[in-house]
Design a protein that fits this description.
By secondary structure, the chain is α/β, with parallel strands linked by helices. It has two domains: 3-121 and 295-350, Rossmann fold (3-Layer(aba) Sandwich), CATH 3.40.50.300; 126-268, Up-down Bundle (Glutathione S-transferase Yfyf (Class Pi), Chain A, domain 2), CATH 1.20.1050. Helix content is 41%, strand content 21%. The strands form three sheets. Strands 2-1-4-5-6-7 form a six-stranded antiparallel beta sheet, covered by helices on one side. The protein has a five-stranded parallel beta sheet with strand order 8-12-13-3-14, with helices on both faces. A three-stranded antiparallel beta sheet has the order 9-10-11. Strand 10 and strand 11 (264-265) form a beta hairpin. The radius of gyration is 22 Å and the shape is globular. The two termini are 29 Å apart. 36% of the residues are buried. InterPro entries: DNA-binding_RecF, P-loop_NTPase, RecF/RecN/SMC_N, RecF_2.
């Protein structure tokens, strides 16, 4: 569901500004400090009720003001979202003048943020890649949500038993853990297979592009976090070690996405700029997969060209133009300063503060 109109009042550096967006590419450019990141932050807040830059919503209020308001119209029916905050009150979220909670925003306006953490997807800890996969799956599958919560509830109980050195009680949680783990692993594996199809489709057909050629032969796999066919066998075998370490050492909570060229880690072959370029393409593949599964979403990307050389930037721009959803992104310089292809659905905004 695309954002048709975005208005900001006393949000960050903006006193009162408004943008009419298109359903395709929306490109914001301007000097550092102009407010480009704040615009993307406002979009992210619309879909989550949270900022990707601060946990304190009062920090979003323009200096010298007492409150902020983000207003948006989304979808063809122009549903109205208003998020506001007064310093002395809690965050207010309203859709069509009806108050809702943050969790409801996620399904109303799914946002896929390719942010500074996502830029170094390969170098990040496994926990980051696992949570990134989980966030997308939460949008796709109620079954996954239910199994995920069941798994982590049972995991907390088993770990509590291990800390109290109660082996029989710990064993009693093995089957609930194993049952939920089977669903989680199956859903993660199926979803990853779909992302991979979109990823490889994005990088193919890039003539004389060595970087895209390398990406096209990358091996991408899910390490599920346990070695046997079902988790139950691992849990039974590892009980003594788990009691010793007082924690459950195997299961989906230890899963990771791994990226290789032959037997070597892909991150060891990339410069920082190349890793960022890969991460952006991977993020786009996730957005496309969500769309394929009926989850319309908005992709946001801040500061596209930093750390990326001209050749890789050229590759990225070709791939970004394939985005089938609303894509809101920023850069210091105008990347489309020549005549824009009339077949390209794009709007440009020069941001000045």
């Amino acid at each position: 569901m695309a954002i048709k109109k975005l208005s900001l009042k006393n949000f960050r550096c903006f006193q009162n500004t408004s943008y009419d967006l298109c359903d395709g590419l929306n490109f914001f450019h301007g000097i550092n400090g102009a407010g480009k990141t704040s615009i993307l932050e406002a979009v992210y807040t619309l879909g989550s009720g949270n900022s990707f830059r601060t946990t304190k919503s009062n920090n979003l209020i323009k200096l010298g003001s007492n409150s902020f308001k983000i207003y948006a119209e989304i979808g063809d029916l122009r549903q109205k979202i208003v998020i506001s905050k007064t310093k002395s009150k809690n965050l207010s979220i309203k859709v069509n003048e009806k108050s809702i909670i943050k969790r409801e925003l996620v399904s109303l306006l799914p946002i896929n943020a390719i942010d500074s953490k996502m830029f170094f997807y390969l170098s990040s800890a496994p926990d980051y890649r696992r949570k990134s996969l989980d966030r997308s799956l939460f949008l796709v599958s109620n079954t996954y949500q239910k199994s995920w919560f069941s798994y982590y509830s049972a995991l907390r109980q088993r770990n509590s038993s291990l800390k109290r050195n109660s082996p029989q009680e710990a064993i009693s949680w093995n089957m609930p853990l194993s049952d939920a783990a089977s669903v989680i692993q199956n859903e993660r594996s199926n979803f990853l297979d779909k992302i991979k199809v979109n990823f490889f489709n994005l990088v193919k057909d890039q003539p004389d592009d060595g970087f895209a050629d390398r990406l096209s032969i990358m091996n991408i796999n899910l390490e599920k976090g346990f070695s046997n066919e079902v988790l139950l066998d691992d849990l039974e075998a590892s009980l003594a070690q788990d009691l010793f370490k007082k924690t459950t050492q195997c299961g989906p909570h230890k899963a990771d996405l791994v990226f290789h060229f032959d037997s070597s880690m892909a991150k060891d072959f990339f410069s920082r700029g190349e890793e960022k370029a890969f991460s952006i393409i991977w993020g786009l593949a996730i957005s496309m997969t969500l769309i394929n599964l009926g989850i319309d979403n908005v992709t946001v990307l801040d500061d596209l060209s930093s750390e990326i050389d001209e050749k890789h930037l050229e590759t990225l721009l070709k791939i970004i133009k394939k985005a089938p959803n609303q894509f809101i992104f920023s850069n210091i310089s105008d990347l489309f300063n020549s005549k824009i292809d009339e077949n390209l659905n794009i709007k440009k905004f020069h941001v000045e503060h």
